[in-house]
Design a protein that fits this description.
By secondary structure, the protein is an all-alpha fold. The protein has two domains: 183 residues, Growth Hormone, Chain: A, CATH 1.20.1250; 194 residues, MFS general substrate transporter like domains (Growth Hormone, Chain: A, Up-down Bundle), CATH 1.20.1250.20. Helix content is 82%, strand content 0%. The chain contains 18 helices and no strands. It is globular, with a radius of gyration of 21 Å.
Amino acid sequence: MDLRVLILAISTITVGLVELIVGGILPIIADDLNVSIGTAGQLITVYALVFAIAGPVLLSLTAKVERKKLYLLTMSIFFIGNIMTYFSPTFTFVMIARVITSMSAALLIVLSLTITARIVEASHRAKALGYIIMGISSSLVLGVPLGILITNAFGWRSVFLGIAVLSICSFIFVSIFLGKVPMGDVQPLSAQIKALANKKIVFAHLATMFMLAGHYTVYAYFTPFLETNLNLNQYWISICYFLFGIAAVGGGALGGNLANWIGSKKSILIIIGAFAIILFVLPYSTFSFAFFIVIMMIWGTLSWALAPPQQDYIIQTDPASSDIHQSLNNSALQVGIAMGSGIGGLVLGYTDSVTSMPTVGGIVVIIAFLFAIVSLSMTTGKARRLREAKADS
């Protein structure tokens, strides 16, 4: 693996930890800051919303800044945000710090993807992007158990102090090993906004959003699903989360390698289609714990396998605007996480049963599959013009 890609992948782990790591320690944070658990939960909601908006906006505003310089500057701001969280005396200060870290994290994630796409050869691009996605997925999936472990040993504030220290390490390695990265074709903000009218890529973003929505319809309520259908205690639930996390981390590499092998377009359809099927199978696998673990591991692997071929497909479709679209795809991912959690909550409220959630999640993923088909079947503007020119001649 290219050392530069490895460093960027490790940096994304550091950056990604901030988002969901508070999920498992919300009661402790709420108690320390004298707020309700529901209020403390806004730390996750606000983070996701700011992340979704900040990524494409900041990428546009910083289009003329050399990429390495921008990366280091943004990592410095990310460090400040985590230090602010560590020293924050009130919930308001913690929320302000979360906004700062969310904005900087959104830009760092998309910079990691766009820089990787530029420094590797096109033939290895999907695989390299897979390693970056592994970093993102591992931080999101493993962040909760890691946060609980550190909090139990040293207190919740130490979690953010540790992330701040890791960000310093990332800053040092990037400054040493990553050379200057050209900005590429810099487009004005108006042109980048116009790029959002590319329906082919918009449908690709919708596929990402509904794929993650279907996933989080189930995953956000995975604990009650395990308790209800398998009667597991906290020890075995932790084991399931750990195994799921390992599978999810490997999903990024799987998606990247599959795209290199059979192409991004075929990979997208295979992954989304298989993901829908595995969600439909999930509630029927609980008759055997061993069989359930196998299905769960496949589910975990597929949950993060889509991102590498999807990012590669976006670059192929519109190279000139790929930076802004890669950022938007990450925003779609964040919206999907929030939407899936909301759908799961509605299902639970109306049915009072977590068993039906995988079926609902599977239906949502089918919608993602349809969006993917629409996107893949559409021709680019350039290809359409060539076809029309041939018809006229």
